[in-house]
Amino acid sequence: MSWFLIVVAGFFETGFAVLLKQSESFTRLWPTIGFAACAIISFGLLTVALRGLEVGPAYAAWTGLGTAGTAIVGMMALGESVSVLKLVSLSLIMAGVVGLNLSGVTA
């Protein structure tokens, strides 16, 4: 259950990063509200998940999912550039998260 919460929290982290960009420095109301809601939910889920997980691998998974998700949304929906180097780098981030989790973490 804790890992499921980390995955959901990672999606909300993606949401808050994208909405932060869309808020245009907190000058647009609805993206700002969306950012705040996603941030609170993401941090809340992370906090609950940490009750049953080691902080290092859990935080790496949360930030890795958020990083990869944000980059993918940027490339697919926001018109950001796509390159082989970006795709390889995202793969390396996810490989690092998997590696940390295979290092003996339980829960």
UniProtKB/TrEMBL annotation:
Record GO cellular component, one term: plasma membrane
Main location as per UniProt: membrane
Coiled-coil stretches noted in the UniProt entry, renumbered to this chain: none
Single GO term (MF): transmembrane transporter activity
Alphabetically ordered keywords of this record: Cell membrane, Membrane, Transmembrane, Transmembrane helix, Transport
PANTHER family named in the record: MOLECULAR CHAPERONE, SMR FAMILY PROTON-DEPENDENT DRUG EFFLUX TRANSPORTER SUGE
Name the record gives this protein: Multidrug efflux SMR transporter
